[in-house]
Amino acid sequence: MSTPLVFIDGDQGTTGLQIHQRLRGRNDLHLLTLAADQRKDPQRRAEAINACDIALLCLPDDAARDAVASIRNPTVRVIDASSAHRTHPHWTYGFAQMHPQQAQRIANAKRVSNPGCYPTGAIGLLRPLLQAGLLPKDYPISINAISGYSGGGRAAVEAHEGSDASKAAPFQIYGLGLAHKHVPEIQQHSGLSERPLFVPAYGAFRQGIVLTIPLQLRLLAPGVDAARIHACLEQHYAGSGCVEVMSLRHAQELTGLDPQALNDTDAMRLMVFEGEGQVLLAAVFDNLGKGAAGAAVENLDLMLAALG
């Protein structure tokens, strides 16, 4: 078989640049990008996407939908890093570790939606517990998360690193209308029957995420405690190459969580903390790694392997 042609549409954005850097120099694929004067030319973009084997879309939602609509070649496969198709019933969700068969589904799929950064942590914590019946599907879930400012895209990076960087807020909670676009994604792919309450924030650091979910044991079934919750997560992710579950003993020794602890890696660390009648679930990972470009390249590699 000839070397697969991979087209990155939108390689100048935060995620696109990261993906381009990861793929540059690989000899198992040919990388196609457009010159600066061609990136906004609909005809050139349509020609490129229809000529490739796998397209990686690193675009705003509407532009991603337009790119998919321009595909006429039935053999073209797509990984969409936008949020345009993450709840679409005909797209495969690109979180390889969320189900034992998910990696194979991704490998064989024609259309893959790359997960959002915050949903990766929330779904990673919630889905195994809901599937095991340790959490009721209608539990009133609250999710608090802080990300590095790169999660806000080029505008946020410029605000923190540009000429007016001294004016950038050191910490900012947003999504105060409680209608963040990640909420439907989290609800659908975790298996919740009710909308979770999601409160995101940006900090004055470039990349990294800490996401936490508090639980009240009195609202869970008798016998469900931190040990059972931890065992469920540990069993689900046993043998996973990039999702690790910290031991309860090591978690109890921690005095804080650093959102930058796993920066420049594709790992995600899950933790369970226990208190009097309460449990805190936590995830730490790089929003540009497992939360974006790392997941996209992981999904690409699964799809390339299926090409044989």
Automatic annotation (TrEMBL):
Catalytic activities: N-acetyl-L-glutamate 5-semialdehyde + phosphate + NADP(+) = N-acetyl-L-glutamyl 5-phosphate + NADPH + H(+)
Domain of life of the organism encoding this protein: Bacteria
Keyword set, alphabetical order: Amino-acid biosynthesis, Arginine biosynthesis, Cytoplasm, NADP, Oxidoreductase
InterPro entries assigned: AGPR (IPR050085), AGPR_AS (IPR023013), AGPR_dimerisation_dom (IPR058924), AGPR_type-2 (IPR010136), NAD(P)-bd_dom_sf (IPR036291), Semialdehyde_DH_NAD-bd (IPR000534)
A GO biological-process term: L-arginine biosynthetic process
Active-site residue list: C117
All residue ranges annotated as the Semialdehyde dehydrogenase NAD-binding domain in the record: 5-106
CDD domains in the cross-refs: AGPR_2_C, AGPR_2_N
Gene3D superfamilies: Dihydrodipicolinate Reductase, domain 2, NAD(P)-binding Rossmann-like Domain
SMART domains on file: Semialdhyde_dh
Family of the protein in this entry: Belongs to the NAGSA dehydrogenase family. Type 2 subfamily.
Matches recorded under PANTHER family: N-ACETYL-GAMMA-GLUTAMYL-PHOSPHATE REDUCTASE, CHLOROPLASTIC-RELATED (PTHR32338:SF10), N-ACETYL-GAMMA-GLUTAMYL-PHOSPHATE REDUCTASE, CHLOROPLASTIC-RELATED-RELATED (PTHR32338)
Name of the protein: N-acetyl-gamma-glutamyl-phosphate reductase
Gene name linked to the record: argC_1
